[in-house]
Design goal:
Chain lengths: 113, 110
């Protein structure tokens, strides 16, 4: 596709349920980022994938959060046993490694009730 | 700890004036520098990037880089109300990973 695509756009889930968020990066982009952004706050780094290198998972807030990237393309962020504090917009971005300019998807707004 | 610092603002500028946004970074190995604009409720969008010391102009926007001082800035000339947004500075580290500032909220007053 022409840009980074995220799905779903909105997700409402009950506390304690698991959710999966999907990101389709721009074709050919080797780097993929996940961020979380709460209302009025800055970007909170979650995880960084770069080609075949081991991902940088240093931003994942707890072991309830995990992410994978299959075939160097599509990525899935999974949140297990969701809590109300997980409510936020989850943003995905991708870039070419050497250029570094990142392009963002439209985000997934997660609401845990 | 690699850091990118920005004044959170809000920075209030009269319409038609020059808005000046500043950013400092800690990693001397950084090679690429980016400015993003984020409207409320929207995703960040890239507006400028700069790789070399000096100025880079694109329309009403000018990015300035001073690697010796570890300083990057964004100037917006003839500011318009539509420029009101949060401006995010991002810097890539030696692993090409982007490090982000917290953003400066800019308000252009008609």
């Amino acid at each position: 596709g022409a840009g980074v695509s995220q799905s779903p756009s909105n997700k409402v889930t009950e506390k304690g349920k698991d959710v999966e968020l999907r990101c389709d990066p721009i074709s050919g982009h080797t780097a993929l980022y996940w961020y979380r952004q709460s209302l009025g706050q800055g970007l909170e780094f979650l995880i960084y994938f770069q080609g075949n290198s081991a991902p940088d998972k240093s931003g994942l807030p707890s072991d309830r959060f995990s992410a994978e990237r299959t075939g160097g393309s599509v990525s899935t962020l999974t949140i297990q046993r969701t809590q109300q504090e997980d409510s936020a917009v989850y943003l995905c971005a991708s870039s070419f490694r050497d250029k570094g300019e990142a392009f963002f998807g439209q985000g997934t707004r997660l609401t845990v009730v | 700890q690699k850091e990118v610092e920005q004044n959170s603002g809000p920075l209030s500028v009269p319409e038609g004036a020059i808005a000046s946004l500043n950013c400092t970074y800690s990693d001397r190995g950084s090679q690429s520098f980016f400015w993003y604009r984020q409207y409320s409720g929207k995703s960040p969008e890239l507006i400028m990037f700069i790789y070399s010391n000096g100025d880079k102009e694109d329309g009403r926007f000018t990015a300035q880089l001073n690697k010796a001082s570890q300083y990057v800035s964004l100037l917006i000339r003839d500011s318009q109300p539509s420029d009101s947004a949060t401006y995010l500075c991002a810097v890539n580290d030696s692993n090409y990973q982007l490090i982000w500032g917290a953003g400066t909220k800019l308000i252009i007053k008609p």
